[in-house]
Amino acid sequence: MSDAFGDYLRTIGRIPLLTAQEEVHLGTIVKDWMESNDPSPALQRRGRRALQRIVTANLRLVVTVALRYIRRLKHLAHDPMDLVQAGNLGLLRAAEKYDPTRGYKFSTYGYWWIRQSINRYLQEHSGSIRIPVNLVSLANRADSLQSLRSHPMSVEQLAEALQESPQRLLYAMAIQHRSNTVSLDQQLSGSDGDMTLLDTVTDDHQPLITDDYRWMHSQLQHLSTPELTVIQLRYGEDKQRSFAEVARLIGRSKDQVQRLERHALTKLRRHLTPALFPQ
Which residues contact 226 (CB under 8 A, 6 or more apart)? Predict the structure, then answer.
């Protein structure tokens, strides 16, 4: 968390909360102000003060909702304050539309508006390409409807269920699919923090292991046939054979195999050293 976010939490933590009676009283003042066709200057002043008091007293509610998104989406590249400010817009809208006569608490009503505002912000800013919210919402509703069915639905069936034209639905689904871009610098979950998605992408132009050692294999021509046979039997397969196994395969003694290998490695070392350590 940033220092600015910590300072913000400490600031709003000092704001007193509203009692149930204060919530109803202030909500009634705001409702009267909002519904009045020609509010008096006194009502406007009282309404603005009441609206500000409701909003400031519920700023901690916005942080609570925003933190749920941050913890659930650990890869979120947004600053926590961005989500909080988006939620504050929803809180302000909730305070303007709150009706205390319905009998529910403001936090219950405000939670829905705050969450809607944060979701809208994420829909608009989470992708590399900005897509209109109505198209994102249409594509999400289509995905939700499809997930409830045991068999895939055609575009025409989805459009009919959503009361949309097949062309508009197909366009929304295509746009959302194309906007799902991923950064190659994104860290992989479960890694130690050093591995990114780019590390998993293969390059057809990169030399293979056999290509890396081809220059060394060319030096084997300097070996005699018995020496080459011993080196191939000893190191040419995944499982290294013992001197006794090689001796049995070529019909020589163990000492002879050891001597042939020693001579072969000496020759290879003499020819490979200039290539490995150029002057």
Answer: 250, 260
